[in-house]
Structure prediction request, 569 residues.
Amino acid sequence: MLALPCTGIIQRMLGARDLPAANPSGLSAETAALVGQLLQRVQDQERQLAERDALLQRKDREIALREAKIEKITFELARLKRWKFGAKSEAMNAEQRRLFQETLAEDEAGLREQLERLRREAAAAAAAAATSDTTTKAPPRRPRRNPFPDHLRRVEHHHEPERTDCLEPGCGRPMTRIGQEVSERLDIVPAEFFVHRHIYGKWVCRCCQMLRQAPSVAEVIEGGIAASGFVAHTLISRFVDHMPYYRQSTINARSGVHTPRSTLASITGQAGAALEPLHEAHRRFILSCAVLHADETPVALLDPGAGKTRRAYVWAYARSWHDKVPGVIYEFCPGRGAQYPLAFLGARDRHGRRWSGTLLTDRYGAYETVVDPRLYPDRLGAACAAHARRNFEELTYDGTSVVGLEAVRRFARIYGVEAQLKELSDDERRAQRQQIAKPLWEELKHWLQLERRLVADGGPTAKAIDYALGHWAALTRHLEDGAVAIDNNHLERQIKPWAMGRKAWMFVGSELAGQRAAIVMSLVQSARLNGHDPWAYLRDVLQRLPTQRASQIEDLLPHRWQPASDAAP
Prediction:
């Protein structure tokens, strides 16, 4: 009896096609039977290997899908924790807060159960345990007090010892002053109300019986009690400090001044109407820039007929972050459809031209219509790099996403280059971006494409990568135009006052009230961008507006405004 050779050796030496037939000529029956058995064994071995490969591939797909589910649930738990501890109790009533906490508890329990089940399945499949990196936090910095502004009035208090002779035994000589130590403390005098008394002398000619009197001083609110300073104070308290009328009325009453809420509301309404021509001139100034930022934020609008609030939106547009003359404008609209930015950007100027240029947005769908090349070939769309980066930052909150951490690191290198180019001209900035930043963007794109092949569909990592690659042309638009900013953070900072206002007023009373707020806040926020004190700007503008010629209204815009004492004669 011949010894059977190892199947592995036979497979390496002879393929299945090289083995002889079951009963070849020239072989004995015993040898032929042995060869037939070996051939059958090799075929069975090949079939088992094929089945095992198919099983391994199926297991690999199951493991990849399970890991994607675990990543997604971990991400949702981290986001749920941020919502739980970031929720502001003052923004909810007791019933809303109770329902919110109950819903969070239910969601957290459900997600944790899914996560534990997936981990048990992974352990049963002998999945490797993931190791988490531990990072050490930098020691907290010691607080450092900023010096008080130089323009504040200083009241000096001098302190010297009662005796300036040496008290040491046997000395008694006069001491010499060698210096001083200065400490400063901030104090305040409450706001002072005062009254302007306008006394108009009456002059008469006894002979001709002719009466003469100086014309009355023009005021922005004719026949009212409020001078321009008080009107400006009311507007600033309402739209900058976000103080409701009832609180303003209470504060004024502490000084013995009776200003009912109806009076304050009337002052605001009339002042808002007076500022409309200036707001229109400001809109033309904003649209004169070839690169604009655009964004929108929701506000609650009271719907009296329904007895509840509905969602409205404030659309914001700002001149480019790199433009030498800053400005921002807001538009209150009842919805979020594309018709609102289309109408704003489609308005024609005095020369019959509509806006054309580059619009930097967060890629909300409504803006795609605004920059559709088939309808507006003279417009381009740019995307916010911070928005794309934020998707990867959310992956890093639990510290386990290698892709998220690496993406954030690569974005940090790109932003490091951009920070060095802020003070350059547009042409110089474009040249430096092409030389330094463009290779970094190309490396990032190549890396994202490679990582995408390794990431299962449906998870947050895949979504973050797909968003960046899907908007790549718009994300890198700034590389071709030095006037385009890398992100939309500039405008997001200008929208923050509306977010603060939402917490104070809770809702806007009417569409007219929303439009009025947009008018005032457009001018005030632009004044801030140009380094002006909001109250000083509004007070002077309201004082000069009644007598300002329509042809010179642009002299009162925030970027051109000078106080009356500094203005050219």
